[in-house]
Amino acid sequence: MTEIELVGIDADDTLWQSETFFAEVEEKFIELMSKYSSETGLEESLSSNEITNLRVFGYGVKSFTLSMIETAHLASGGNIASSDIKQIISWGKELLQHPVILLDGVEEAIRELASNFTVYIVTKGDLLHQRSKIEDSGLDKMVAGFDIFHEKDPESYLDFLIEKNIDPKNFLMAGNSLRSDVLPIVAIGGHAVHIPYELTWDYEKITDGTVPKSGYSVIESIRDLPSFVSELHG
Amino acid sequence: MTEIELVGIDADDTLWQSETFFAEVEEKFIELMSKYSSETGLEESLSSNEITNLRVFGYGVKSFTLSMIETAHLASGGNIASSDIKQIISWGKELLQHPVILLDGVEEAIRELASNFTVYIVTKGDLLHQRSKIEDSGLDKMVAGFDIFHEKDPESYLDFLIEKNIDPKNFLMAGNSLRSDVLPIVAIGGHAVHIPYELTWDYEKITDGTVPKSGYSVIESIRDLPSFVSELHG
Description:
six-stranded parallel beta sheet
């Protein structure tokens, strides 16, 4: 029998929209830059610069904003206008202050899950922004707690579980990212549930064939999560 | 009798240099901007912009870098050169990758303290940068753990203590900031020890007379902390 003692749920693009807003800004960025260069591939340059900068800047909107500014400098051949820099920073501020828009069925699913299991929101990245979103969502009042990792790797998940005295085999994690919510959980022997989102940030995509063929489950919507967990636990 | 069950120690400007590096970059920023404007008060503009942005950007180097860029746009009358923006971003990256330089006596003090008490490093701000510095310092191997708050307010300290099942009256916090390491601790009934640093970031200064006249201690150097705690505990 499988016993689930703790359920972890990812936040961005699992509970609420996130990548959609980044993609909107990216589109505006590409339009802004069209007056400097007719070259294609700007989206790829931004994405690659962003991923290169991850090691130094970490995750989140501020990192993304700095990477956009850096990409703007490069892609304009060193000619980006001061006013366009200001525009990019404004987009960053808008992203940071965007209202939280819950995905369909989230509230009901979390309420039902939390009535049967200990549920934690488990996310990563920018401490202030992630925390603000969790609090704005109102979901923090339904769940047992939340944790913001610096990185969703096996070590961080293990630290989190050790602190709560939970064996990985009694832990279930659900989220939209194979890289962050599924792979590390499979690695530590927990239960991973993939809930794909319509958009995936390049960095979270797994392109090198390291996705395990088995050992995790996929559900179409977070609406299906409460019954999935209950059946597994049963 | 006072019983100390947990000792918290601030990180930036208590364990290692931080404000010094920010001040160096600020000086370079002012020099860079001198070609755009002969007006004085640039330092104040930057500082005020930084503090205004805190609510949206939070603490840390990325926020500081974005505030510098924004101030550069404003102070140049919308004429900041692309290459100077690039320079500002480079300073941000340098700040994020600066080697950790422990303050005098820190290693010995922490080793001695940790041999007699449960010691946590308690800091705030940027998850990745703070964590990197803690790990680079090697001090994480001497202490029981560390925590990175989003804000050092009474509520965060209480959450931290509740999680560890420690009564505030059995908690001692030492650090260089009256605003972050002393005031909230006095507010929750813990023991606060102020260890002033030669430089204080404007935001951490208390100018409105809310510094309590008593209820906390001041020591000159972290070297004096182990004996101070032992005597208090005794």
